[in-house]
What we know:
By secondary structure, the chain is of the alpha/beta class. It is built from eleven helices and 15 strands.
Amino acid sequence: MNAKTILVTGGAGYIGSHACVELLQDGFKVVVVDNLSNSKIESLNRVQQITGKKPSFYQTDIRDKQALADIFAKESPTTVIHFAGLKAVGESCDKPQLYYNNNVYGTLVLTDVMMHANVKQLVFSSSATVYGESSCPQYTENFPLGAINPYGRSKAMIEDILRDLSAADRNNQSKYPWKIALLRYFNPIGAHESGLIGEDPNGIPNNLMPYVAQVAIGKLKQLSIFGNDYPTPDGTGIRDYIHVVDLVKGHINAIAALNSESYKCGGCNAYNLGTGKGYSVLEIIDAFQKVTGKPINYKIAPRRSGDLAECFANPELALKELNWKVEKDLHDMVTDTWNWQTKNPQGYI
Ligand code: NAD
Ligand code: UD1
């Protein structure tokens, strides 16, 4: 039984709610801080339904420094998993200040409060979107960074800030140095196998999997495939889709690593969380049709600006240093997405 308290920012969201389930099932005490700007409190009721345990919940913006400091004083967390952030690429191009304020300034406030509370263990939700375009489609952590939109740049800036915090401790030979894991997610999809929690996008989804699921259930009429003239075997874009439950298990392993001998002297390292295998848009549609028995109506549309032809992870470092690898395959991802979609056709209501 592990009595440690983990503070989860953004814990009511898609990935955060799945993390709460895994943490509670592993015996951690969980404190969620979320302003509910892109989520509903119902997700945490469902977490309780799955686990039989209730996370503490504060409806608080991470930029509210005093409120956050009070939560740290009251709850005494040992580690923070930082999911809170805005994540829509298109919106970030329209409203860059909103994204830099929420994501970057929010992280500055959070790390400031953590330092004052002497809590210097952090797992951060980064993204494969921080990488620059590469001639090799399999991305390794030491590839050059080069995000191409404000959302991606907000993640890259946060990574820089966190690396600098860690470097400052190293230079000062701090007795209690920052221990930070930057987890670069590839394409999280799927849902908890219970079908009680899942992705509940606002409005029309931007990402492929929720879009396909809403076409299958009849909420949307037709999927537009963004380009079929890429240099890939079937011409459509290839991505590394990862089951959200595998993804959140990577966070639990990261906490264990930060507590291990290898982080005794502190440090800040990036890890890819992906499967290492890519699937094309047409392969995803095919898998979805097979699992659901429903035809997916689609048309070929122009390429979406900013899209790469192919992108998948080299997940070897996470295996070596976090002792983590995925357990679920595409069939599980599609089955669990469909189970969530059919049980919650309107999302959380
Ligand atoms: P989500 O929108 O479902 O969850 C984010 C949560 O953070 C929401 O509940 C939202 O209300 C909360 N939040 C946002 N700003 C906040 C603030 N200032 N104060 C308090 N709470 C705030 O998104 P998600 O898919 O669960 O993503 C979680 C994290 O992972 C995000 O940081 C995202 O950028 C990152 N990420 C997501 C993906 C993906 O495809 N889902 C891929 C790579 C990285
Ligand atoms: C997108 C974001 C990326 C973010 C990631 C989170 C963009 C440009 N990039 O990446 O920053 O980290 O989501 O998971 O938005 N597709 C269609 N039709 C659709 C939707 C998508 O054909 O309606 C295609 C895309 O062209 C791509 C693939 O499906 O080839 C996956 O798209 P998506 O789910 O949006 O993920 P990413 O493009 O990898």
